Amino acid sequence: MNALLIIDVQNDFCPGGTLAVNDGDQIIPIITKIRDRFDLVVATQDWHPAGHKSFASSHNKNVGEIIELGGQPQVLWPDHCVQNTPGAEFKKGLELKPGDKIIRKGMNPEVDSYSGFFDNNHVDATGLNEYLKSMGVTELFLAGLATDYCVKFTALDGIKLGYKVNVILEACKAVELKPGDAERAVAEMEAAGVRIIKQFLKPPTALYQPPLR
Ligand code: VGL
Ligand code: ZN
């Protein structure tokens, strides 16, 4: 059994949102096109309480600053994906279907949760692993936002948990706080055993080939 994991395709991570990923919404038609090829579909949802400690506003600091939180470096983000606000809703156009599983993360105000499996301290599980195991899933295909944060951390945890993990690169977009973050994330995932799929959709076939002369 395989599963498509759609990571954090939410309003705040798309253009117009508070933590907008460039062209974040452009992956949605690709996800729509491929989703039915998988045995099951899981969507993760960043779901923070107001005043979450990953928010710069909770510390009177600037977005992008790095603090220590629970003994770990923590990037400070704009307020985003606050529970029950429009920013936390899945982006319109992402067609979820009745059988799809939704996994929420980031609810503990004291710790961030990039991975769809565990919080960043690897203490609390989200239930994703138990769900996938109960469904007999052994192989994961990842799409979503953002390549250099939640996609990467979910992929790395997937490998540690023993799944075969694939990242569908054309169905992901990166935050790129620092230029090169996306490339480094891809390298890190590959080094950990993640298969990076550069071209999942068939390249468009030319309908007309001019005759060679
Ligand atoms: C994410 C930063 C903070 C993500 C979530 O979905 O990649 N990034 N929260
Ligand atoms: Zn978040």
Task: Provide the descriptors you would attach to this structure in a database record.
single chain, 213 residues, alpha/beta, Rossmann fold, two-stranded antiparallel ribbon, 8 strands, 18% helix, 22% strand, binds pyrazine-2-carboxylic acid, binds zinc ion
Question: How would you describe this structure to a colleague?
Answer:
The chain has 4 helices and 8 strands. By secondary structure, it is of the alpha/beta class. It has a 6-stranded parallel β-sheet. Strands 3-4 form a two-stranded antiparallel ribbon. α3 packs parallel to α4. The longest helix has 14 residues, at 147-160. The structure holds pyrazine-2-carboxylic acid and zinc ion (ZN). Zinc ion (ZN) is lined by residues 46, 48, 54, 80-81, 106.
Q: Based on DSSP secondary structure assignment, what is the total number of beta strands? A: 8
Average pLDDT works out at 96
CATH class placement: Alpha Beta
What is the alpha-carbon Rg in Å?
A: 18 Å
N-to-C SSE series?
EHEEEEHEHEHE
Characterize the largest beta sheet: strand count, sense, and whether it forms a barrel. Answer: 6 strands, parallel
CATH architecture: 3-Layer(aba) Sandwich
Strands of the biggest beta sheet: in what spatial order? 5-2-1-6-7-8
Number of helices: 4
Relative strand content: 15-25%
Bound molecules: pyrazine-2-carboxylic acid, zinc ion
Low-confidence stretches: none
State the secondary-structure class: alpha/beta
Please, how many domains?
A: 1
Q: Terminal Cα separation, in Å?
A: 50 Å
Tell me the overall shape: globular
| CATH T-level fold name | Rossmann fold
Q: Spell out the CATH superfamily.
A: Isochorismatase-like
Q: Approximately how much helix is present in the residues?
A: 10-25%
